[in-house]
Predict the structure.
Amino acid sequence: YAVTGKRQYLFMASRFEKKMFFDPLAAHRDELKGIHANTHIPQVIGAARAYELTGEQRYRDVAEYFWREVTSERAYCTGGTSNQEYWRSDPGKLASELGEYTEECCCAYNMLKLTRHIFGWTADARAMDYYERTLLTHRLGTQDAQGLKSYFLPLGSGYWKYYNS
């Protein structure tokens, strides 16, 4: 749709929406517990793009609420989110989630992409504060000098990062 402007493609794109995921977010309800984080973050990036293309407020509501909820209630001090690739706890209950498999790096990368959309709409300094924190303490911290990367950023006591190609 973004390339052609043909509404038929916009309709087709809407067929890929997960209403059972978007509807609670649009209603400002956090129902993220138990779902795979990086399956759903890109869907919200899609909602952000849909808002930019269509102006439909619901997509912006989904993206902004999701972003606020993840960055304030489901993000660790380094800006990353998830444990063993899932949101396994209730909002604000991350202490029990610290371990070897916290913070899947793909989630941090995609949250940075979503943050760029949010900042573009709002120019809210909190978005760039989150972006800076996540870039410097998560994304750059998961790459070694030879360019290898880690899949998770372990935050539990006694764990270390594994780098691979």
Notes: The mean pLDDT is 95. The CA atoms of residues 6 and 12 lie 10 Å apart. The chain has six helices and no strands.
